[in-house]
Design a protein that fits this description.
Number of strands of chain A: 0
Radius of gyration of chain A: 22 Å
Strand content of chain A: under 5%
Structural class of chain A: mainly alpha
Largest interface: A-B, 23 and 29 residues
Oligomer: heterodimer
CATH architecture of the largest domain in chain A: Orthogonal Bundle
CATH class of the largest domain in chain A: Mainly Alpha
Structural class of chain B: alpha/beta
Number of helices of chain A: 10
Chain lengths: 244, 248
């Protein structure tokens, strides 16, 4: 089964690679460079620092979002009397595309990393919060009753019932958040910065250096896939029971 | 052991569920509570377990007022935690008491052995049959070395054969460990087989309609005896006495 999965993965990669080759050969103007020219344009000394900066921004943002959204979501899901007051606020602000606040973030937090990280974290925060809260809300009462009759207190109920029950939902929201956070990363790195993959892509675009631009694009993809895989591994380790 | 005095309970919406319920269960005795569905049997059990606040009347366990977290309960479904293995499920009560690992091992291993669960320690509940799951639930309360156990229709979602097996197993184990238990059920045969004292409740708001003494309960041969059928018939008569259409 596992080998099967890897085979399909490799096959998909090969197919995508061929699509890329065909496109690079048929679309004129060098807008889609050939794989070979992209490999030639790759230089570790320019790629690595940009990749690491971008990765750090996304990872820190995701970390902040998880640390804040998960506990709040669990709490609101378990305490309807509080959720009653907070839910309308979330409901009203959730649909706002948070990226429109980028100028405000730049003014308030400066144009450095803080504003970038804060914006990514804010967007992801909502996704994780809403999923976690809904998960915590739907934890079956008998599970908690069972734990209480076995001597569990409120903390135990969170630890042994609410958190494990919500974990699959939390990890799913995290997976969705990874895609979102990389997209927002590109957006925040297109302004007022001299490093990061987003900046690298836009810079190369400005100079019509399409092979270099593709190095950045592939870097962004690798970043996304890497984080996605980490969540996948976490899920397999922590939620074995949900995958049976 | 357990003394319930003039217990009355109503939900917030003003629906009265229990009215003036009083009974007692002696140490080592088994008590079955039976009544029409929705009559408040589960509410009664939740009150004894301390999961619901007592509004009027009192419940005393060994002379002191009941408190939550002291009386383990076996539930119909959802009792086992799907995210914990058989081992973790059985050990949870001890884990909550911060029992050292070695101690947990010493207690859990023989219990799993006794219930035939040793080969399944690393299984998750979803990998087990319904009967195996309820055996895990029994093991879990046994691990806590309780003197009193509450059961809320523990076997109602099992097939008839598994149910009989488990009833026999249960009475044997409870007897061996000298555990007092109260079982809520809607099955007349189950009440007859397991309850040395059978309490019949009326429709909501539940009052005690009758208390039937049934000294032979728990004995495996009792099930095929004449007295078993007599008691079952008696219970059936009491249950349906004011509700003739349900009998038809």
């Amino acid at each position: 089964m596992k080998r099967h999965r890897y085979l399909i993965g490799i096959l998909s990669a090969i197919i995508l690679f061929f699509v890329w080759v065909v496109m690079s050969l048929t679309i004129s103007g060098g807008i889609i460079p050939t794989p070979l020219s992209v490999v030639r344009a790759f230089s570790l000394s320019t790629f690595a620092p940009n990749f690491l900066v971008s990765m750090a921004r996304v990872v820190v943002s995701l970390g902040i979002a998880i640390i804040t959204a998960v506990p709040l979501g669990l709490f609101l899901g378990q305490n309807p009397q509080w959720d009653k007051w907070i839910a309308p606020m979330i409901f009203l602000t959730y649909p706002i595309p948070k990226i429109v606040f980028l100028p405000i973030f730049f003014i308030l937090l400066g144009i450095g990393n803080i504003s970038k990280v804060a914006l990514i974290a804010l967007v992801v925060f909502y996704q994780i919060l809403v999923t976690t809260r809904d998960g915590a809300r739907s934890v079956k009462k008998p599970f908690m009753d069972a734990l209480v009759t076995l001597g569990g207190n409120t903390r135990d109920v969170y630890r042994h019932v609410v958190i494990p029950a919500c974990l699959p939902a939390i990890l799913t929201s995290l997976r969705i958040s990874i895609g979102t956070s990389v997209a927002i990363l590109f957006f925040v790195e297109s302004f007022a910065t001299r490093n990061g993959l987003g900046n690298m892509i836009l810079d190369a675009w400005g100079m019509a250096d399409y092979p270099m631009m593709f190095v950045g694009v592939i870097g962004m993809s690798v970043l996304g896939i890497m984080l996605y895989e980490i969540v996948e591994i976490l899920e397999r380790k922590l939620c074995k029971w949900a995958q049976l | 052991m357990i003394q319930v005095n003039n217990l009355t309970f109503a939900y917030l919406e003003g629906v009265e569920v229990l009215r003036d319920v009083s009974f007692s269960v002696k140490k080592g005795e088994s008590c079955a509570i039976i009544g029409p569905s929705g009559c408040g049997k589960t509410t009664l059990l939740y009150l004894i377990a301390g999961l619901l606040p007592i509004q009027s009347g009192e419940i005393r366990v060994n002379g002191t007022a009941t408190t939550r977290g002291n009386i383990p309960m076996i539930l119909q479904d959802y009792g086992l935690f799907p995210w914990k293995t058989v081992w973790e499920n059985v050990a949870i009560g001890l884990t909550l008491k911060h029992t050292p690992q070695r101690e947990i091992r010493k207690k859990v291993v023989p219990i799993l052995e006794e219930l035939g669960l040793s080969p399944f320690t690393s299984f998750y509940p979803s990998q087990l049959s319904g009967g195996q799951c309820q055996r895990v639930a029994i093991a879990r309360v046994l691990a806590m070395n309780p003197s009193l156990i509450l059961m809320d229709e523990p076997f109602s979602s099992l097939d008839a054969m598994t149910r009989e097996h488990l009833q026999t197993l249960l009475s044997r184990i409870w007897e061996a460990h000298r555990i007092t238990f109260i079982i809520v059920t809607h099955s007349i045969e189950e009440a007859t087989f397991l309850g040395k004292r059978v309490i019949v409740l009326s429709e909501r708001p539940a009052k005690i309609r009758a208390v039937v003494e049934n000294p032979n309960a728990g004995d495996p041969v009792f099930r095929s005896s004449r007295t078993f059928f007599e008691i079952s018939t008696k219970l059936r008569k009491i249950l349906f006495s004011t509700n003739p259409e349900a009998q038809a």
